[in-house]
Amino acid sequence: GANSPATAQLSSIRTGAGANDFTIQLETGNTAFEALRIKSDGKVGIGVADPSEDLEVKGDQTATIFINSGQHDASTAQEATLKLGFNQSHANDSIGYVKLIEGGGNAFDGDLTFGVPYNNSGTPTTREALRIKWNGKVGINSTSPADLLTIGAGANTLAFGAKDTIRGNHV
Fold first, then answer.
1. Which one of 22, 80, 110, 156 is least enclosed by Cβ atoms within 10 Å?
2. For position 1, what pLDDT does the model report?
3. Nearest Cα residue to 94 out of 125, 121, 115, 54
4. Is residue 142 within 8 Å of 153, Cβ to Cβ?
5. Pair 37, 45: CB distance under 8 Å
6. Hey, how many other C-beta atoms are within 10 angstroms of the C-beta on 139?
7. Which tens digit of pLDDT belongs to each residue from 91-124?
């Protein structure tokens, strides 16, 4: 409470022979709760006492993971990236990503991109597969869609949007 000492604590909890979990316990409204647990097998739970995955997050009604690239700087475009991957038998990993890319300047516009891993002659590489622009335009295998939906790039582009007289490849 307001006049009593806080009950926040760091704990090592023995869970079996040669196994200890690490916990962080906090207090709110005079009620202690476990906020974070790192199990002896390396699994991490936020709001979860017995995480079943490498990282498990549980909220009351919703769970939010916020990746913030830092303070806006008008001279530098910011990026916030969530990477997903699996190790390979050599130095390069196969990595997919979800990335928010700021447009730069003082516009505060951002594009959401999705990258996927692929085999580039035996070497894992990542390429951008989908981009949703700040203005709602979507590109599949196109990093700069000019229409509502642009599929591909170059001579093999298929665009969905208003037909114009300059380009005949609109549907």
1. 156
2. 45
3. 125
4. yes
5. yes
6. 25
7. 556 788 999 888 766 667 889 999 998 888 877 7
Residues 81 and 126: their CA atoms lie apart, in Å, by: 14
Burial of 21 (0-12, 13-18, 19+ CB in 10 A): buried
How far apart are the C-alpha atoms of 133 and 143, rounded to whole Å?
9
Sign of CA dihedral 36, 85, 139, 69: positive
> Cα–chain-centroid distance for residue 37?
21
- The first and second tokens of residue 42, run together, are 């390396």
State how far the alpha carbon of 115 is from the alpha carbons of 56, 60, 131, 139, in Å. Answer: 23, 31, 9, 12
The tokens describing 64, both together, are 């939010």
Average pLDDT in the chain = 81
CB of 51 closer than 8 Å to CB of 44: yes
Classified as helix, coil or strand, 154 is helix
Dihedrals phi, psi of 90, to nearest 5 degrees = -125, -170
